[in-house]
Structure formats: structure tokens, C-alpha cells
Design a protein that fits this description.
Chain lengths: ~100, ~210
């Protein structure tokens, strides 16, 4: 029987890798990828605790809402990235520092 | 052989060896299910590592596919077949395709990866997470504990569908999520649209270049 701690360990590692991906690369696309990793690590936690805590529906429904939010976030974030590139001609987060054209 | 190729080979060798080791450990401690768990953990974490490591954004995006597939495998291992299917359908088929569109519509920057920066970030964040894990793990002490018997796995797609539409369960959240998705997608189209005058601007830039 796989203990629930093993799932939590993988989830923690994936969360840490997502944060590293966000802070160590200078490209907005990598920030988006890091956010997806972090959301996935949360999904693993919800699914694992849902399974080990009576196997009800709650964990799965949480994961479905996370996936819905991730889809909405990815669509809006990419639209913003395209717009940022259109305005600033760069996608380095450190150089995007104006709120107007 | 130049240093870059050597680094690349060393990195992938270490990742592959770690995966083999993890699968051996999983098989020896938890049997066949442990082997599947180790395989999915390897897919998940190796995909994320390669995503951080690779210089090209396209390679990173495809490495992320391994991560999403590994997470889908975890869902299947946890008996959540509907989630595994939704994960592959939405993440691998949808979000990854969106990210690739973003990659293709923005310029590549191959000199952006700095190994020293990645190393520092890994040291600081990994150290912090390891510290907290050791402290909390010492307090909890039973991270390896597990119930003797889990409920039998059964498909619950039908139950999830009923729960989403049942007036006493999640129907409000479900409708709000649908509303959110509609607004987000319309907003994305609105934000990313081409404004009038874009074409003239581009033609002007082309003339400047010529």
C-alpha cells in the first residue's frame, strides 16, 4: 500500500520545481509553465487526500475546478503575453514595467 | 567534445539513473503499484526538471507534456479515471497547445538560460522546502502511515456529473465556473485581437527596415 505521504512528497517536489521555474528563467512563457506545474502539484494533493479520506467526491471535484481555472488562466495569460509582446517587443518580465502604451 | 554537450549528456544521464533507481525502490517497497507510482513520479518530476533545464522554449513545452501525463497517471493510480482523462484532454491537448502558440508567436531567446541563476534558485528554494519538510515531517512523524484497506476503485464519472447538477450539491459552483470560462475566453479573444491600424504599423516598420 502506497502511503499518502509519498504523493505529498511528489507534490512538494513538483511545487518547488514550479517555483524554481518561475524565478530562474527570464521569459514570461516559463512563468506560465511554472504556474501550471504548481497547479498540478495542488491537484495531486487534492486527489490523493480525497482518495485516502473516504474516497468521496470532494477531492475530485476540487481537481476539476482547478483544471477549469487553469484553462481560463492559460487563455487569458497567453492573450496578455501576446499583447505585451506587441507593445514592448520583448517578453522578459523585468523589462515590462509600464502600464500604458 | 565541447562543454555544452558534456553538460547536456551528464544531466540526462543523471535524470535517467535517478528514474531507474526510483523505479527499483518503488518496486521493492510497494510492489507493482509502487513501480507504477515511481514511473509516474519520474515522468512528473523529470518533465519539470527538463523544462527548467532546457535552453529552447519548445523543448521545455514538450517536456511539460511528460509532467502532465505523469499527473494523469497519478489520478489513474488513485482511482480517479475521469480526472486522468480530463487531465490529458485539457492539459496535454489544450493548455500545452496554447503554450506552444505563445512560444511560436514570441521571439526565441536562446541566451536567456543562466545555469548559475538556476543553481542559486534551486539551492535556496530547495533548501527552504527541505528544511520545512524535515521540521514538519519530524512533528508529524507518520508520513509513511497508510490505512490497511482503501475502498475498492470504481468509476465515478456518473456520480460527478450528478453532483455537478444536483441542486443541493455543486450546481452553483458549476454554473459559476461555466460563467468564468465564458468570460475568460471572450476576454482572451478581446485582449489578443488585432486593433485597426496594426497592419499599417507593420508595413511602416517593414519600410523602415528596408
Amino acid at each position: 500500500m502506497i502511503p499518502v505521504g509519498a504523493y505529498v512528497a511528489v507534490s512538494v517536489a513538483l511545487f518547488a520545481l514550479g517555483v524554481i521555474c518561475i524565478v530562474s528563467r527570464r521569459n514570461i512563457i516559463y512563468v506560465l509553465m511554472g504556474i501550471e506545474m504548481i497547479l498540478n502539484s495542488a491537484s495531486i494533493n487534492f486527489a490523493a487526500f480525497g482518495r485516502y479520506n473516504g474516497d468521496g467526491l470532494e477531492g475530485r471535484i476540487f481537481v476539476i475546478f482547478i483544471i477549469i481555472l487553469a484553462a481560463a488562466e492559460a487563455a487569458v495569460a497567453l492573450a496578455i503575453v501576446l499583447n505585451v509582446f506587441h507593445l514592448f517587443h520583448t517578453i522578459k518580465p523585468s523589462e515590462v514595467d509600464l502600464l500604458r502604451e | 567534445m565541447n562543454q555544452d554537450v558534456l553538460l547536456q549528456r551528464g544531466f540526462y544521464t543523471i535524470v535517467a539513473l535517478a528514474g531507474l533507481g526510483a523505479m527499483g525502490a518503488g518496486l521493492s517497497s510497494w510492489g507493482p503499484a509502487g513501480l507504477a507510482f515511481a514511473l509516474f513520479a519520474f515522468l512528473t518530476l523529470a518533465g519539470a526538471l527538463v523544462c527548467i533545464w532546457e535552453r529552447s522554449v519548445v523543448r521545455s513545452a514538450f517536456a511539460l507534456m511528460a509532467t502532465f501525463t505523469g499527473v494523469a497517471g497519478f489520478f489513474a493510480l488513485l482511482g480517479a479515471d475521469f480526472l486522468a482523462m480530463a487531465q490529458i484532454l485539457i492539459y496535454v491537448g489544450g493548455i500545452l497547445a496554447l503554450i506552444l502558440f505563445g512560444v511560436m508567436l514570441t521571439p526565441p531567446d536562446m541566451g536567456e538560460r543562466k545555469l548559475t541563476r538556476i543553481g542559486w534558485a534551486t539551492a535556496i528554494i530547495g533548501g527552504g522546502f527541505a528544511f520545512v519538510a524535515v521540521r514538519v515531517g519530524g512533528k508529524v512523524g507518520s508520513w509513511a502511515a497508510s490505512p490497511d484497506e482503501l475502498p475498492a476503485m470504481e468509476t465515478k464519472a456518473r456520480d460527478i456529473g450528478i453532483a455537478f447538477l444536483h441542486p443541493e450539491q455543486y450546481v452553483v459552483a458549476f454554473e459559476l465556473a461555466a460563467y468564468l470560462l465564458t468570460v475568460a475566453l471572450v476576454a482572451a479573444v478581446y485582449i489578443a485581437r488585432r486593433r485597426t491600424g496594426d497592419f499599417q504599423l507593420q508595413e511602416g516598420q517593414m519600410e523602415e527596415r528596408a
